[in-house]
Each structure stands twice: as C-alpha cells, then as structure tokens.
Amino acid sequence: MAKWNIDLGHSAINFQVKHMMVSKVKGVFDSYTADIEAADLADLTTANISFTIDATSINTRSEDRDNHLKAADFFDTETYPTITFKSTNITKKSADQYALTGDLTIKDVTKPVTFETEFNGKGTNPWGQEVYGFEAETTINREEFGLTWNAALETGGVLVGKDIKVTVELEVNPA
C-alpha cells in the first residue's frame, strides 16, 4: 500500500444548507488532513481513507455565523474540535464511480455515511509528479449528529434546513 498526499491548493471540503427555506448558505472547512493509503488510486477499492477536519476552521463568509456554528448550539468546538471520517467499505459502481462508505463523527455521534464518489482521472503535473482527482458527495441530516439548534420563522418553516450537502474535491499525489 502506498501513501498519498492531498494537494490542499487543489482540494476542498464544501457544504451547503437551506437558509430560511428560500436560499442556501454555503461554506468550507479551511483546515483538514487525510490519511490515504492505496495500492492503486485508479482502483479506489484498494484504498483506506480517513479525514480529520478542524471544526474551528468553518468558513461561511460571515464571522457572526461562523462563531455561532462553533458555539454549543452547533459544533461546540471547545469540546469537540474535530470532525472525523474513516472509510469502512469502497464499492465500484462503474468504471469511474464508487460508493465510499465510512464512519462520520460529529461531536460525540458516529454514523455511517456513503459518499457517491467519482474518479476524475489522473495526469502528470509540470514537475513530473502523477496526480489523481476525485469528487465525492453526500447529504446528511444534521440533527442525527446532535446539531439541532433552529428557529421558527413567522412566515412558517425554520431558519436552518436539516439536510446538509457535503462535497469533497480532492487532488492527490504520491507521498
């Protein structure tokens, strides 16, 4: 098994959630690490993948909102500073499509989630290093992970939707 590094300049962990039932708030986690081992990344089924996300690095382009997300109402980053994911099974669905299943831990709750994952291909960068690209997407119910804060709206509905769409874009290269 070979180790692989994330090219942080060409990778991202993004999320979005409905706001006031009419629009979406989008954000990123600016700081994260990954342990990726695979015999051959062109066949993702050979991989062991784990991520550690610094929950304090949440960035929605609003300092007030980010501070609220870090507080006890949401991530409680003083008590739970990281979010983790560890793969448990990777199934090939087609030539470039995979189901990447693993344990996601937010706060003190661990649940299995499956990322629909696409292998975008491989190439050689200008320095002669082989690189591989992937995109992965899942939707989680935030309330299942203890992120239950909300506010009712006068017009009906709630301030924050339950479903969080998570998208991971990765470019990796040999360690």
UniProtKB/TrEMBL annotation:
Protein name according to UniProt: Lipid/polyisoprenoid-binding YceI-like domain-containing protein
PANTHER family in alphabetical order: PROTEIN YCEI
InterPro entries recorded: Lipid/polyisoprenoid-bd_YceI, TTHA0802/YceI-like_sf
Residue ranges occupied by any Lipid/polyisoprenoid-binding YceI-like domain in the UniProt entry: 3-173
Organism: Lysinibacillus pakistanensis
Similarity remark: Belongs to the UPF0312 family.
